[in-house]
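Title: Prediction job returns without error message
Component: structure pipeline
Severity: low
Priority: P3
Assignee: unassigned

Description:
Job completed but the reporter wants confirmation the result is attached to the right record. Sequence as submitted:
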Amino acid sequence: MSPGPQDLARRLLPLLDLTSLNDARDDDIAALCAKAITPRGKVAAVCSWPGFAAEMAERLAGSGVEIAVVIDFPQGEASEEAAVAEARQAVAEGATELDLVMPYRAWLAGDREAAKARIAAVKAASGSAVLKVILETGAFPGPAEMAEAARDAIAAGADVLKTSTGKIAVGATPEAAEALLGAIHEAGGRVGFKAAGGIRSLDDAAAYLEIAERHLGAEWITPARFRIGASKLLDVVLAALEPGA
């Protein structure tokens, strides 16, 4: 039997990443951090630009909410030195998770080794921070290529595979989740998964939970291994948790 809306919402709340990545970079970090701790519990992480790592870390100190920042976002085309420097600075300022955009255009053009080298270099600079690698699956021609890129990212040191930046037309899709979670299953489930880009309803989120359960089992799904990056989904989750909803 499928869970009801309240049970589903209760399960989803601690798996959410709240993200604020306005193009003008004038994000209201105070509001983002305040929203991360709700009367019903806390989300998994907040995510914004590297320059806000220190503020997020200060505002959420002791809360258990992870501090995530994006690296080489959203194009994945900065130099390796620039990406590494951005990662090191973010970690020094309190980031506990790094969401790195893989050089997906280079990978698609055939330069897989350069993409792997970028991931490995940022991983080496990340210290104890979790490295989430954004594949930008909406740019890939099909699931076979998504799966190959996922395997390369895992081999290069990714701790989590993330579908999308949310900055191109196609975000997360069930097809992409199948490809990435299949690669994670092949790797023994030691790498996590994050769906991001266009997930707005409980039904959308439930589809990704179902795919993850089918590949890796319900017990695998924890905040350390499974995330949904969908800030708009939080309001839907909280509404479902209201008494009488």
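Comment from assignee: result matches the submitted record. The beta strands are 16-19, 37-38, 41-42, 45-48, 66-71, 97-101, 130-134, 160-162, 192-196, 226-229.
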